């Protein structure tokens, strides 16, 4: 299957190439970057197997053909224009940005800072969190979930699916991510000297993953869910942890929480439920695995649930390949188990 990667020079684009290089069914025919156009992919990714060079974004779009699959590792505003153009050309699209993750176009100005120019595509887009619902052979557009949203939902899924969470108070999500989560864009606040030996919250009460998390959790709970989400920047390269705090329903016990966790993720190839230790980012780095645990704080009647993952793999490229596998009818783990 021929695949085109847009935004291939970025952190998640290069991570896509790293995994796709050893995917048994996929051939990457174009990797777009204006900044690196003409340069060999191998110059950025030593394990790349052939002489493919980065091509300009316009050239990659012009050469895209019906039957191919396009993976967009581009900013949301770019994906918003690219996806319709590629769908018109007969490609199927997996978009790693937030451009198609929300159903309600009216939310885009507030959370993403731009009006949605293709609202009709929001109902076509399949929200590709495979643990909730995988795409299939007829899916044309996948909105790959956000990294924080993936971790928050994998942590909260068992609690909501088993109806352990009381209504009436918001679910608090505290997310912490390594610096690659912010992309490769030049930004003074992300310089080594600004980030090292320091920890800070950012986009407090206005992070764009908030409505995405609310939508996914609401789907699981079968009711509206209010989320208070705060992201933190951690001085490490990659890795993300979401700590989710939810009010326990009266009567819920630790045994109920443990049972819910085991049951909810039993069939999920890349989610490991931990009973003997809490999740740790360092142990899942460079893999597509997510680690999950949950504990009832009996005194406060709050369930604390955690999920650690690699923001660039399970939180981006690896999850996109899980979606790709589902769109091709392949085993979900195809090309994803080697480190
Ligand atoms: N980083 C993460 O942990 C993460 C996790 C999940 C989802 N995502 C999402 O994945 C997308 C990419 O994120 P990233 O962190 O990998 O970003 P990044 O490192 O900043 O890379 C951005 C890529 O997009 C390309 N690009 C920029 N403007 C473009 C345009 N106008 N047309 C076409 N391509 C353009 C850049 O190409 P040039 O080489 O030409 O500059 C570069 O390859 C974003 O939507 C982000 O929200 C990121």
Distance between the termini: 22 Å
Determine the oligomeric state from the structure.
Answer: single chain
What series of H and E elements makes up the topology?
EHEHEHEHHEEHEHEHEEHEHEEH
Query: What is the number of E strands?
Result: 13
Q: What is the C-alpha radius of gyration, as a whole number of Å?
A: 19 Å
Ligand types: NADP nicotinamide-adenine-dinucleotide phosphate
Structural class: alpha/beta
Q: List the total number of helices.
A: 11
Uncertain segments of ≥5 residues (pLDDT<50)?
Answer: none
- With strands numbered from the N-terminus, the spatial order across the biggest sheet is 8-9-7-10-13-12-11
Q: Please state roughly what percent of the residues sit in beta strands, choosing from under 5%, 5-15%, 15-25%, 25-35%, 35-45% or over 45%.
A: 15-25%
Overall pLDDT score: 97
Helical percent range?
25-40%
Looking at the structure, what is the overall shape? globular
The main β sheet shows up as: 7 strands, mixed
Structure description:
By secondary structure, the chain is α/β, with parallel strands linked by helices. The chain contains eleven helices and 13 strands. It has helices at about 10-20, 55-65, 75-90, 110, 120-125, 145-160, 190-195, 210-220, 255-265, 280-285, 315-325, and strands at about 1-5, 25-30, 70, 90-95, 125, 140-145, 170-175, 200, 225-235, 240-245, 270-275, 290-295, 300-310. The strands form two sheets. A seven-stranded mixed beta sheet has the order 8-9-7-10-13-12-11. A six-stranded parallel beta sheet has the order 2-1-3-4-6-5, sandwiched between helices. The longest helix has 15 residues, at about 145-160. The two termini are about 20 Å apart. The model has no long low-confidence stretch (mean pLDDT about 95). The structure holds NADP nicotinamide-adenine-dinucleotide phosphate. NADP nicotinamide-adenine-dinucleotide phosphate binds near residues 35, 36, 146, 180 and 311.
């Amino acid at each position: 299957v021929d695949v085109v990667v847009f935004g291939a020079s970025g952190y998640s684009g290069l991570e896509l190439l790293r995994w796709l290089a050893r995917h048994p069914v996929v051939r990457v025919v174009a990797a777009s970057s204006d900044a690196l156009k003409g340069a060999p992919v191998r110059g950025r990714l030593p394990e790349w197997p052939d002489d493919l060079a980065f091509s300009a974004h316009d050239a990659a779009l012009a050469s895209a053909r019906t039957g191919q699959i396009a993976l967009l590792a581009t900013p949301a505003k770019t994906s918003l224009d690219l996806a319709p153009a590629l769908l018109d050309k007969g490609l199927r699209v997996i978009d790693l940005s937030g451009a198609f993750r929300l159903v309600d176009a009216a939310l885009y100005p507030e959370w993403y800072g731009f009006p949605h120019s293709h609202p009709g595509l929001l109902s076509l887009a399949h929200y590709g969190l495979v643990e909730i619902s995988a795409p299939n052979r007829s899916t044309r557009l996948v909105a790959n979930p956000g990294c924080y949203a993936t971790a928050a939902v994998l942590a909260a899924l068992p609690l909501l699916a088993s109806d352990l969470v009381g209504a009436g108070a918001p679910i608090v999500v505290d997310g912490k991510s390594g610096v690659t989560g912010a992309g490769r864009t030049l930004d003074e606040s992300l310089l080594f000297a600004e980030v090292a030996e320091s920890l800070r919250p950012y986009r407090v009460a206005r992070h764009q993953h908030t409505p995405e998390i609310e939508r996914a959790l609401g789907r699981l709970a079968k009711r509206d869910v209010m989320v208070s989400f705060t992201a933190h920047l951690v001085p490490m390269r990659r890795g993300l942890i979401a700590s989710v705090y939810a009010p326990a329903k009266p009567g819920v016990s630790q045994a109920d929480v443990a049972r819910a966790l085991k049951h909810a993720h039993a069939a999920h190839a890349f989610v490991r439920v931990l009973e003997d230790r809490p999740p740790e980012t360092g142990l899942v780095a460079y893999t597509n695995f997510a680690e999950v645990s949950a504990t009832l704080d009996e005194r406060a009647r709050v369930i604390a649930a955690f999920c650690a993952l690699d923001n660039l793999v399970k939180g981006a490229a690896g999850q996109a390949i899980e979606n790709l596998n589902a769109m091709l009818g392949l085993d979900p783990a195809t090309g994803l188990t080697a480190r």
